[in-house]
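User: structure tokens for this one?
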Amino acid sequence: MSNELDKCLMDLYSRNCPKNFEYLNIIRQLNISLDKFKIVHVGGTNGKGSVSYKIANCLKSCGCNVGLFTSPHIWTPCERISINNQIISNENFIRYYKIVSNVDNSRQLRIFEVFMIMAFMYFIDNDVEWVVLEVGIGGRLDSTNFITSSKLVVITSIGLDHMNILGENLSDIAYEKAGIIKPNTTVVIGPSCVKYAVFKDKCKENHCKLIPVTINALEFDTENTEIAKIALTQGLGLDSKIVNQRLTIKPPLRYYHLSDYEKQIIGLSTYDEVIIDVAHNLPGMYYLAKQFSAQKYRNLLKICIYFNSEGRSLDVLAPLALDFYDIYLASVDHPRISNNTRLLRKLNEMHETQLKIKLMKSLSKTNGYFIHNTPNYKEIINYALGEIKKTSGVLLLCGSFFAMFDICSTFQILPSVFGISNQLPSVKY
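Assistant:
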């Protein structure tokens, strides 16, 4: 079965798709109707995946049949499509991929659109009542925004990310995020969204009820939890007692601490700390730095290893510059991750700041691992682990989602820890 899944994924990732293909034609050919779904549409710069996850799990706890479509994935594309917290099986993934692939012109679809169409087909066939639909990028022009109505819209946060697509300033980005607001729905917006008039204006224009969330949280998960709670209780009218019981759940690798058992496998003591987080943009790094600073690590050696998404500036690391003694850059074998050559080029192009000085100092210790473009993450992780073992320190690994598969493999973190099958495809992209 895994060989057949690998074939599907190799076919999927070999696509070279036009940017403006009309994917709605494929949806019409497949007779996909959304009429029976109650849709919760979730957007935002950061937190939309976590909030989607929390909302879906709470709806399930209330006895609803809930489909969740989210992105990206860590171990397997099957993670993107789930019903009642159970990801789609390899068999069903293959089945729906073949159905979509047999439609005329389907090779023009972008990868994200293929997954989305597969998800809706799967939800229809399994009589899903509620669909929690996470936006890919932005909102107004996102592929998920073909829906014509929604029961609830949640916009978690506004921050600088994907500026080449969404605009160079926060007001432009807020405008794009507000594009998912549909007529006569309820709209919940996170704390960083409240100051942008576009949300109030868009709600007034569409006769929507606007519910702002105004919590000032130290930890990102606390803010996401409050947004989900308000969305479920005030937005959907669910029982707060049931909601509160399920809100602690969060997706994989959100400030994840290695367990004592996982540390023992790699020869660390229980006093050493290894933390893994998917923070990868500037707003995410600010939250990560704030949470990290609040921990009792003041007198410990603190080291960070960062995996950079291709096209992203290394300046996103600025919030971490003060807290960490060393910040190492590392690469994995993935087309969406900066390789060694690009990392060094980005570093040389940086302005002379304290961050650049720290990165250059750290690089001087690991530059032997930057030969050619061979992925160097294993060597740099081993080097950093050796350093923290000397003094019982803290190692933080963060950055792109697309590096997390390799990070987890290095630390032998199994998907089953997060309720995901260990039967993985060999095609990791």
